[in-house]
């Protein structure tokens, strides 16, 4: 009850604040203020001033911004650094600024001509970065924090914010797991800290946690992204900080006057030609079918003589044009008197397409010294490279900040996003479109003359697959999402240096996913069925904090943060489905039309957190920096005996370059050493894992559906948080006036009390119980270097390079450290001493030759069979001969980027790389081994024969399903990717002003323009799963497109 009163009281404060904003400073007052300013400008005689902006080398600075403070009046310097400007009075203040330089302010006075020099901002050491519940100068940081500003994001167009992050910050690995519009993106910071719980970082937007990540955030709305990597930075978030924290600050209007900005891009997307998979055509497949038949006589002579196998040439005669057997017409008689295929379908060519996408954004911003506002709108229409796949996204965001009194500032942010996605299901490799592109045989058509679709069942012996185009057109799969995010804050200046801030935020998401599979489909089990699933998540967060800053004797500076926070999440989901619809007309609009409705299902969960946190920053003479934080968290997700935990951290830094012996050094302009330790937690598990679970099962008795309930999981009141301790050593160096900068961090992360489903005796009636029984560690080095190579009047060139080394190891798995084997065909393993995401299977030592017939016979094999290594030399190949054959986590990864500017042109060339991970291609597992029942990769043409005994593939035989987890299906996942090539041109100021614009910029870019890899498949970066233990497993993923973009940015 007390908590509800607190919440009720704060909501009243927020409502009253908004009321004051409207009543005491309504829109007309803001307009009146601006009107008075502009009116004064008309009454007074304007003064024309001229000037030139130069840098510290006395070189002109083109495109610097020059404005009159507290007005809408502004301009930009031309290509020679010159400007002209009309100012209202001689008391006016002109402000000149340029990215990377300190701003310069001048009072007009009696001057009419100015030469204004801008000094470099010491490589942004005075730049302010966002940290947990506050901000801090970059030079004062004691932790490992990476930052990206809006100017960097806008140079590289991206569909979502996650892609904008890729490769920008050392230690942050961004993987695009699907090329589908709206497809999955996973982000890991400094490796994996959990096995069963989430490894996603915590996302905080404008001080409020976004539980669904930042996919819905428009990249054009972002002002900055700050990534907290070490535990001294993330411990302030306690149980949510073990996987790192990504803090996004959005744009919030402009106090320097009103602006309108419009930007767009149009994109062309296509499958890279070099990534098109080579599969058998009709002639090749039919030849291999005949080879399978011939080899059957040697492989199974008894069955062959008994007529078990049908001669394919004779079989095809039953499918000739004009056959009277009711079969499909697939062949005609050739001149040689043998059946020849009518069709030769390239399913990849038929299924993929060159698609067009577009993106539009419009922003209105403005304000005055007391009020600033922004209204942002966006529309994205992204069409995928597989036919019928798409995403449409609509977003709107409004922000207002109001200085109510000298001691009170309030603000509100509201955003709404609507997404519609559809066309292709890439969530399951078993029967999705991508798999069927590879495995559908080419001699069966997309459609017959009677309008029915061709499928595998049209030819005897084939797997009954639907052709991929019929899957595209007849599987109506939609993903509809609505997301609302809102926050409000009130900041009170109580005393000099003492502030109190209260923030209330909420996320509400609602997803509705209707699916319908037409009766026109003939393969699989989903045909003629409908399904609707829906879920709603509601989250709110209330933070209250005091912040105190004080400097003593001009040497001692302290900052103290004290705060409390409450969070609550509620989830509700349900699913209803049916089959045997009387007509496709109903689709999912009338589930009651189905004659075989399935029982609906629903689920709900909820959790709460209560937290208390503090931080102390101390600076001595701006040389010696210390930070101590602590957070006390309580969560309803854990056992009643362990619901609360304390997470501390400490960090220290020494700015060596501020010491007298280095302060004026011409070579070393910045040198800082850092060290930190912190403890964080992970609470991202199911809400009721500590409790016994009651489940239901249904059964049919006497034509009546009945159900019963039973406990299917034991309670564990001692279940507690996973805890990650992290140690970090950092070095920051700036050389030659910071024209060369590098940052290096070495870290060690150890996670204890991993949450695992541990086996228990079967006599208990249960198989597993969730326990804290595992440990895991990550060791790594993050390194980044930025160089300012050329800095001339009309030419600049800078380089950014980063690399992240990572070594992951499981160090404990319960009392006996027993292996945990799981996944498809038990192809993955957790083993002490090895990386999480290890791949488990057999080692292939080649193919038995005719000279090895005797050796093959020992294992029940023949020449032409796969030779598997017998690890225990017992003469039997079985599960005991499996071993770890790869790992899904790379040894290192990073990015190399070069930026050039020549006059009004700018160019960015960006490469991404990864080395040391392995990938198990499950599509290859089936498409190089299921001879005669589905299509295969063209590699099978080089299979073993008595005259080709050096082949790496076994002899083709009628083996049916042949899934064998061995090293043949493994690929090196290393790659070098041409990630971004972008060319921009900014129209000279005098030309854009003639057009009534403040500025105009055009861009042309290409993404994913180059890929060098040994991986056998579409793309080595694709992955079916986000979980740590399933890294490196792929199965029929939606490919990443190569994209050409053309964009325009207008400022009014």
From TrEMBL:
It is found in: Cell outer membrane. InterPro entries: Beta-barrel_TonB, Beta-barrel_TonB_sf, CarboxyPept-like_regulatory, Plug_dom, Plug_dom_sf, TonB-dep_OMP_SusC/RagA, TonB-dep_OMP_SusC/RagA_CS, TonB-dep_rcpt-like. The keyword Transport applies. Pfam families: CarbopepD_reg_2, Plug, TonB_dep_Rec_b-barrel. Residues 138-245 form the TonB-dependent receptor plug domain. It comes from the Bacteria. One of its GO terms (cellular component) is cell outer membrane. PROSITE patterns: TONB_DEPENDENT_REC_3 (PS52016). Its main location: membrane. NCBIfam families: OMP_RagA_SusC, SusC_RagA_signa. Belongs to the TonB-dependent receptor family. This is TonB-linked outer membrane protein, SusC/RagA family. It comes from Daejeonella rubra.
């Amino acid at each position: 009850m007390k908590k509800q009163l607190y919440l009720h009281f704060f909501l009243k404060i927020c409502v009253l604040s908004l009321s004051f904003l409207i009543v005491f400073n309504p829109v007309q007052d803001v307009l009146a203020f601006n009107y008075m300013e502009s009116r004064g400008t008309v009454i007074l005689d304007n003064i024309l001033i001229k000037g030139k902006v130069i840098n510290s080398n006395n070189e002109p600075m083109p495109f610097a911004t020059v404005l009159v403070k507290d007005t809408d009046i502004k301009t930009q310097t031309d290509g020679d650094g010159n400007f002209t400007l009309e100012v209202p009075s001689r008391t006016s203040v002109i402000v000149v600024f340029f990215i990377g330089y300190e701003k310069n302010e001048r009072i007009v006075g009696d001057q009419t001509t100015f030469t204004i020099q801008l000094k470099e901002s010491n490589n942004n050491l005075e730049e302010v970065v966002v940290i947990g519940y506050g901000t801090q100068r970059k030079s004062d940081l004691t932790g490992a924090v990476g930052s990206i500003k809006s100017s960097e994001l806008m140079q590289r167009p991206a569909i979502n914010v996650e892609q904008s992050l890729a490769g920008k910050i050392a230690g942050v690995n961004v993987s695009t797991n699907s090329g589908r519009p709206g497809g999955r993106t996973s982000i890991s910071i400094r490796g994996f800290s959990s096995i069963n719980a989430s490894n996603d970082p915590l996302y905080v937007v404008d001080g409020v946690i976004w539980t669904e990540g930042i996919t819905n955030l428009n990249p054009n709305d972002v002002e900055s992204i700050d990534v907290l990597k070490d535990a001294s930075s993330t411990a302030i978030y306690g149980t949510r900080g073990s996987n790192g924290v990504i803090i996004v600050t959005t744009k919030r209007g402009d106090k320097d006057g009103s602006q309108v900005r419009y930007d767009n891009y149009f994109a062309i997307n296509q499958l890279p030609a070099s990534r098109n998979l080579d599969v058998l055509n009709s002639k090749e497949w039919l030849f291999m079918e005949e080879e399978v038949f011939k080899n059957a006589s040697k492989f199974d002579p008894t069955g062959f003589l008994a007529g078990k196998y049908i001669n394919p040439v004779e079989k095809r005669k039953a499918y000739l044009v004009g056959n009277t057997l009711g079969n499909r017409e697939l062949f005609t008689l050739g001149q040689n008197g043998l059946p020849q295929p009518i069709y030769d379908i390239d399913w990849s060519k038929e299924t993929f397409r060159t698609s067009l996408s577009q993106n539009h954004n419009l922003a209105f911003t403005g304000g005055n010294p007391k009020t600033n506002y922004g209204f942002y709108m966006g529309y994205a229409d992204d069409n995928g490279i597989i036919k019928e796949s798409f995403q449409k996204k609509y977003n709107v965001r409004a922000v207002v900040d109001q200085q109510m009194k000298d001691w009170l500032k309030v603000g509100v942010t509201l955003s709404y996003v609507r997404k519609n996605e559809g066309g292709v299901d890439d969530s399951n490799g078993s029967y999705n479109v991508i798999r069927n592109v590879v495995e559908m045989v080419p001699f069966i058509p997309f459609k017959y003359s009677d309008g029915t679709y061709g499928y595998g069942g049209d030819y005897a012996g084939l797997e009954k697959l639907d052709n991929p185009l019929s899957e595209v057109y007849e599987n109506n799969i939609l993903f509809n999402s609505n997301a609302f995010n809102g926050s409000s804050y009130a900041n009170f200046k109580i005393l000099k240096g003492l502030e109190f801030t209260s923030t209330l935020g909420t996320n509400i998401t609602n997803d509705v996913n209707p699916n319908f599979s037409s009766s026109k489909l003939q393969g699989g089990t989903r045909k003629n069925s409908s399904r609707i699933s829906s879920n709603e998540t509601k989250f709110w967060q209330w933070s209250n904090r005091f912040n105190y800053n004080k400097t003593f004797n001009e040497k001692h500076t302290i900052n103290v943060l004290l705060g409390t926070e409450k969070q609550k999440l509620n989830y509700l989901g349900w699913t209803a489905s049916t089959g045997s619809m009387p007509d496709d007309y109903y689709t999912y609009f009338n589930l009651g039309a189905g004659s075989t409705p399935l029982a609906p299902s629903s689920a709900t969960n909820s959790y709460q957190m209560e937290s208390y946190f503090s931080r102390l920053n101390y600076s001595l003479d701006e040389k010696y920096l210390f930070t101590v934080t602590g957070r006390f968290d309580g969560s309803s997700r854990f056992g009643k005996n362990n619901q609360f935990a304390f997470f501390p951290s400490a960090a220290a830094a020494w700015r060596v370059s501020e010491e007298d012996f280095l302060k004026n050094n011409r070579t070393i302009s910045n040198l800082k050493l850092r060290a930190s330790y912190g403890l964080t937690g992970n609470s991202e598990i199911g809400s009721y894992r500590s409790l016994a679970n009651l489940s239901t099962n249904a059964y049919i008795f006497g034509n009546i559906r009945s159900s019963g309930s039973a406990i299917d999981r034991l309670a564990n009141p001692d279940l507690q948080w996973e805890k990650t301790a992290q140690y970090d050593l950092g070095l920051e160096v700036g050389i030659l006036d910071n024209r060369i900068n590098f940052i290096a961090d070495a870290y060690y992360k150890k996670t204890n009390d991993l949450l695992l489903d541990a086996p228990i005796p079967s006599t208990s009636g249960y198989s597993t119980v969730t326990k804290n029984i595992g440990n895991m560690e990550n060791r790594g080095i993050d390194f980044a270097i930025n160089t300012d190579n050329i800095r001339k009047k009309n030419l600049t060139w800078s380089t950014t390079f980063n690399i992240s080394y990572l070594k992951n190891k499981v160090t404990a798995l319960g009392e006996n450290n027993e292996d945990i084997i799981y996944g498809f065909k038990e192809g993955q393993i957790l083993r002490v001493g090895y990386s999480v995401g290890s791949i488990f299977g057999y080692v292939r030592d080649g193919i038995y030759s005719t000279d090895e017939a005797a050796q093959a016979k020992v294992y029940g094999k023949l020449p032409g069979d796969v030779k598997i290594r017998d690890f225990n030399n017992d003469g039997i190949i079985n599960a005991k001969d499996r071993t770890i054959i790869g790992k899904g986590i790379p040894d290192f990864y990073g990015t190399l980027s070069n930026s050039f500017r020549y006059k009004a042109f700018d160019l960015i060339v960006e490469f991404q790389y990864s080395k040391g991970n392995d990938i198990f291609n499950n599509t290859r597992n089936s498409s190089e081994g299921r001879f005669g029942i589905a299509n295969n990769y063209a590699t099978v043409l080089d299979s073993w024969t008595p005259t080709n005994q050096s082949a790496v593939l076994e002899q083709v035989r009628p083996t049916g399903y042949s899934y064998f987890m061995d090293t043949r299906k493994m690929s090196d996942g290393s790659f070098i990717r041409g990630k971004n090539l972008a060319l921009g041109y900014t129209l000279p100021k005098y030309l854009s002003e003639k057009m009534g614009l403040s500025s105009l910029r055009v861009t042309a870019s290409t993404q994913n323009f180059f890929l060098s890899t040994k991986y056998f498949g579409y793309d080595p970066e694709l992955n079916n799963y986000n979980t740590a233990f399933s890294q490196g497993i792929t199965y029929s993923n939606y490919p990443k497109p190569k994209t050409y973009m053309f964009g325009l940015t207008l400022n009014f």
